[in-house]
Write a structure and sequence with these properties.
By secondary structure, the protein is α/β, with parallel strands linked by helices. It contains three helices and four strands; from the N terminus they run αβαβββα. It starts with 23 loop residues before the first helix and ends in an 11-residue tail after the last helix.
Length: 151
């Protein structure tokens, strides 16, 4: 994106000014998704994403005020502290996945759960099929809700 600064503004359908400083690459991708939603006249009722999609899900969950879930989520927010609609996003990460720790100076939005995989399945970290396995185990162990509607 060069040196162009992006922001989701109050006059956009995606709503968004929050005083939050977003990672510009993740914000650019969230803007592509928001533009597609506007073009298709889709108003989301729930947002789900994996990896880059999880970064966008955190931004869009906050912007649209709808529940969301992110898997293998990088950190899109440079600022800390409470944020409007921030608690509506559930982040599910594996402790053996490096992506959720990046970029280091940034933060997640929402409730973050970092699950430790079965030792036999460690370091199979980032692919979504490896997340499906750990989500089921996390629900059985009571570490994850069986349903998510934001809170």
């Amino acid at each position: 994106m060069g040196h162009k600064r992006l922001k989701l503004s109050d006059d956009s359908v995606a709503k968004g000014v929050s005083g939050t400083i977003w990672h510009q690459g993740f914000l650019a991708y969230a803007a592509v998704v928001a533009d597609w939603l506007i073009k298709e006249r889709v108003t989301p009722t729930f947002i789900i994403g994996h990896s880059l999609g999880a970064a966008a899900a955190q931004i869009l969950t906050k912007s649209y005020g709808v529940p969301g879930i992110g898997f293998a989520a990088p950190r899109p927010r440079h600022t800390r502290g409470p944020i409007k609609n921030g608690k509506m996003c559930l982040i599910i990460n594996r402790q053996d996945d490096v992506v959720p720790n990046l970029p280091g100076a940034f933060h997640h939005v929402g409730q973050v759960t970092a699950l430790l995989p079965d030792p036999k399945h460690r370091f199979l970290a980032h692919k979504m099929n490896h997340y499906r396995e750990i989500v089921e185990a996390g629900q059985i162990a009571g570490k994850l809700p069986t349903h998510w509607a934001g809170s």
